[in-house]
Amino acid sequence: MSTANTATFTDYDRTRTSFFSALYRFQRVLPGLLAMLMISIFSNNLAGAPNPFTLENLFHWLDGVIGPVNHQPVFGILNSNFVWNPLLLGLIIGNAFGVPDTWKPGLSYIHMLMPLGIIMLAPHFMLWHATKLGVVPIAIIVASLFFTATATLLIAKWFKLDDRHGSIIAGGLSTGDPHVCAILMPLIKAKGGQVVNALVCVLVFGLVAMMALPYLGAWLDIPQSCFGLASVVGVGNGHQALSAAFARGYEAGRYALWYDIGRHVIMPAGFIYVFIVMFIRKLRYRNDPSVKATGHLNSFPLWLGVFIFFWILTTLHVFKEPAHHAIFNMVKWDFSLAASALGLSLSFKDIARPGLKGLAVTFVAGSLRIAVLLAALVVCIKTGLLPVAP
Amino acid sequence: MDRNRHTTDESGFDFMANSGQEEQDRDTLGIAFAVLIIAVLTVFQYWKLY
Asked: What ipTM did this prediction achieve?
């Protein structure tokens, strides 16, 4: 790399002419963009890229060989999706072959792709869809989300876990959506290793909860229709929750599919809540060296405001089908590219460095959530607040 | 301090670093592209182009 080009990247403010300067010169970013593109189209089945040799198809094939577990694909339970497939491939490539310096300017596009993808997610969360569930189930889902997020943040503090790591776990665990671990990364200013470590914590807890919850449900004699709600709110990712419900019974599984809409559409409230709590904390304890979450952010991020604006438009039915699906296809492209760069940026040591403390926090917080959730469900069933299907 | 070979090149450019004016510009680009894509896909549907 020439001295002139070095100055371009190390002295951005001096050479900046407009906000387009963050795109750098096309020749400089091309190798990195091509690397992200190749990893993406060999990871996921993306709109407009008809490549059959993808990691997604390999996992589907293996799912067919292994067979379903309680009606759910094994790799779905292990959280194979459009974010974590390219991350896994990038991680393997980066650790096996290294990351050439020529790729690095292009890989920096991850910082533009994250807000871009998160904003485009907004049309995916139609709050109106949840209203059909009824007041009490919605109240339980919402209460569980805020309780879990708050409890996880407090438990992480008691365990003296890095607050960035604790925030990512709080987001992933409370929403039951491991995507939130990645979504919170640019808001919390978490390290990539903390994000992937937190994802593993949420997934491992989800696997244990997935196996334990059906026994607890049977022991407490929770009817199958209500157990569907318990599994959606109390386990980990969507496939883990459905597997737990189908393990209890077919009706429980069908009700879990029904209640999952409620958990899904309020997911943004979970990551926005975790961010706001940690942002206010940072502003209050600015001089405390242990307060690292949200990093150098001094004002509410404009792009998060844009996301909320589009979320409001979504509730007003501005985005109809198939526009919503077309936008979501772009989200898949965006997150695939960004996750490729994130995977390339990490060594296995980065992921292991936060240690097992995060796992302990996740298990304590997750177990507490299950205990409170089951107690609340039993009370609601006994008092007739929660309707039991005949 | 040793450089992170995964993220930092020989000149010291770290592609995972994101702060200052550069961060603001990246955010602005993200917002601009997102608004553009959402608006185009939505308006095209309203115009029955797909």
From this structure: 0.95
